[in-house]
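Quick illustration, no need to memorize.
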Amino acid sequence: MDVALSDTQRQLRDAVRAFAAARVRPAAAETDRQERFPREVIAELGYDPGAIEKLKKTMRIPHWGLRFGLYGPIKVVDEKFKIVQKAFSSTGNARIARARYPRGAKIAPHHQAAAGIPDVELMPLNWMGGTGAHIECPPVVPMIGAQAYELYRERTALFASYGFDHYSGFTTTTPRTFFNTGSIIFDRSDPEMTGRARELSAALIRDAAKSRLGGYRGHISEMDLIAEQFDFNRHAAMRTYELLKDAMDPEGILSPGKQGIWPKALRTARREGERK
């Protein structure tokens, strides 16, 4: 799969990014607080107020979209689908398109993630140019719209402060919570940009902890930092894990440091700022 941008796409990306840095970013925080669209700024790009409606009509797409999966035996899935239809019927103009995939059927690329097939085809990994890569620091968030929106605003501002676009999405597998898959997309052949990406990743982890939010996954090099955020009652959880580690693996043979849980010898050295 070739995901490299063409010369024309790179030129367009660079032009829009330069415009956003010069005209959009300086007033972005205030515009966001006012919860309004900066039409007067976007008009400088030749923005047509009816362009979005024209695009929706031409491409036959809605203003908002949601993709989800239902799983199980056919009869069970059919009953679940009836519940979904009933729930969305209250919106008045919701349209639901359904794709069926019997066991063994070939799954379309844009449905593979919902089917549990790892795939990054839909992610613009080369958006920043060079050798594209991404890091995610997705916190688990209560299923409350206002809280999700506030988190989105805060994280978008944090991304911008480190010079990155906020490639944001919300994914859920339970009726109580979802996780915000905010991806840091960067050029890993650029040492300076890679450093900023790692700094942003750490900042996102610490920022989520301020709201008592934990991540559902993290980069292997940040296991210690993530573990440090669970600090209730003087890190009671970690002290329990370490007690179990010392009792069951006193020599520290099994996966030392996994999930931030170190054997006693290495633990002492690390806390004294030494590495043995």
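The chain has a mean pLDDT of 82.
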